[in-house]
Amino acid sequence: MIQCNFVFDKTAPNTTVGLAEDLLKQLRATVNLAKARHYDLKEPLAFGDINIHVGIPSFGSIPWAHSNVLIKDEKAWSEEWNAYLPFFDGLVTVADLVAKKPELLVSMKALCDTAVKKRPTSGVVHCPPILRVEDCPPISVVTPTYNRRELIDIAFHNLMTTDYPKSKIEWIVIEDHEDSTQMASEKIVNFQVNNPEIQVKYVPIQGRMTIGQKRNIGVEHATNEIVLFMDDDDHYPVTSLRRRVAWLTKGYRNADSSMPDARASIAFCTTIALYDLVRGVSAVNVPPWGLGLGKRISEATFTFYKSAWLDRKFDDVSVAEGETWITGREGLCLEMPPQQVIVAFTHKGNSSGRRVPPADVKEIACFWGFPKEYLMFIHKLAGIEVEEEGKKVEKAKKNKLIKNA
Per the structure, how many domains does the chain have? Predict the structure, then answer.
C-alpha cells in the first residue's frame, strides 16, 4: 500500500485538505492507497511514500517521503518560498483541485508509481538516519565565545557527556575580549588537561570581533571535513553531535538517494527548544512560516562540510550571520527536526533573536527533562539560586527558582 501524508497548518481554516482527500478517493479506484495521515507543520513526522504539502511548503518535511507534492495557493503564496520549488516532484494549484481537472488523477497516479520505484530494494528507510558510534567520522566543533567565564562550563559539560567518540572531536574555541584577564583561557587549558582525548584549539583575540568573524576564524582552523557549531551557552543533548552528523552524511534533501547530488552540504534546525535561565520558562521557537529559509535557521545548529564555507564566508555581523550564508544556496540545505539537537538558553548576557514568552504570560516550565542536579548547575552559572521546597514549584520569584524536590 502507498502511504500519503498531509502536512499543513491545523490551526488555520483549511478546505483544501478536503479537496485533496476527494482526489485520493478517486485515485483509490486504480491505486492501492492507505488511509492518509494528517500532520501539523509543527508535529514530528513518520516516513511516508508521498508528502502532500498543503498551502505552505514545509522544508523540514521534504526528507520524510520518497516524493513530495505541493498544493499551491496563489492567494497565500510568499515569494520567499520560490527557493523551495525545485525540491517538489509535483505541483498542484488550489484552482486545479476546485476545478477537479481529470489530468490530476493521471499525474497523481504517475507520482505514486514513481514513489514505489524509489523504495529501497531491501531493508527500510531510516528517518531520522542512523549513525553508529563506531562509524562516526572525525569532526571539528567550533565555539565562538565572549565574556563567558562562567557559562562556558555548559560547553564543557556538552563535550564531556556527548556519546560522540572523544578521540574524533576537534574543539576550536575562538575567544575575544577587551581585557585579557577576563578571558576563560585558564579554564579552557584545564579542560584540555582533564580531557586529553579531545583535541582542543584555543584562539584568544585581544579586542572585539563580530560573531561572523569569529565563526570564520574557527572554521578556518578546522582540520576536518565536517564542521559543527556549538555555542558556548546552549545545551546540546548526549546524542546531538551524532544525530547532526547522521543527517549531514546519511540524510537526503530528497528521499531518492539515486538522485545526483541528493545529499546536502549544510544541515540545521529552524524550530528549536528554549529555556530561560533567569525565569525558569520553557518555550519552543517556531519562526514565521512566511520567512525565507535564511531568516528561519538557527546558526547554533549548523552542521556542514567545510567546502560549503570555502565557497562563501560568514558576513561581518553579530546577529543573523547565517542568513546571507544560506540565502541563494537553499539547494545545498537540509532541515533537521529539533528533537535531541539543542535547548537554547536565554539569559541576561546573550544576543539571541529568539525570545521566550513575555513576563505577563502565564507559563509552565517543563524543564526539558533536565535532572535536578543539572538544573541547579545551569542556574547557578547564570547567577540564579535554586531552592528546593517540598512538592511545590515556583519559578523566578524574587530572583530564586523553586524546583521540585
Answer: 2
Average pLDDT in the 221-242 region? 98
Name 362's Cβ contacts closer than 8 Å, sequence gap at least 6: none
Question: Model confidence over 41-88: pLDDT tens digits?
Answer: 999 999 999 999 999 999 999 999 999 999 999 999 999 999 999 999
Render pLDDT for 139-160 as a digit per residue (tens, 0 to 9). 999 999 999 999 999 999 999 9
For residue range 241-256, list pLDDT tens digits in order: 999 999 999 987 654 4
Strands (E), 306-364: 333-335, 343-346
Q: At which of 298, 322, 346 does a domain end?
A: 346
* Co-location of 151 and 233 in the same domain: yes
**Cβ 7 vs Cβ 43: under 8 Å:** no
CATH number of the domain that residue 311 is part of:
3.90.550.10
Residue 307 CA: distances (Å) to CA of 33, 60, 222, 293, 304 = 42, 23, 11, 20, 8
Range of the domain at 260: 133-346
- The rounded distance, in Å, linking the Cα atoms of 253 and 265 is 10
- In the structure, what pLDDT confidence band is assigned to residue 365 with cuts at 50, 70 and 90? low
CB 211 within 8 A of CB 318: yes
Please tell me whether residues 166 and 304 are part of one structural domain: yes
**pLDDT score at 364:** 57
Three cell numbers written together for 74: 496563489
Alpha helices in 15-83 (DSSP H): 16-27
Same domain? 146 vs 97? no
Q: For residues 308 and 238, state if they share a domain.
A: yes
Q: How far is CA 145 from the centre of its chain?
A: 21
End residue of a domain, out of 118, 151, 181: 118
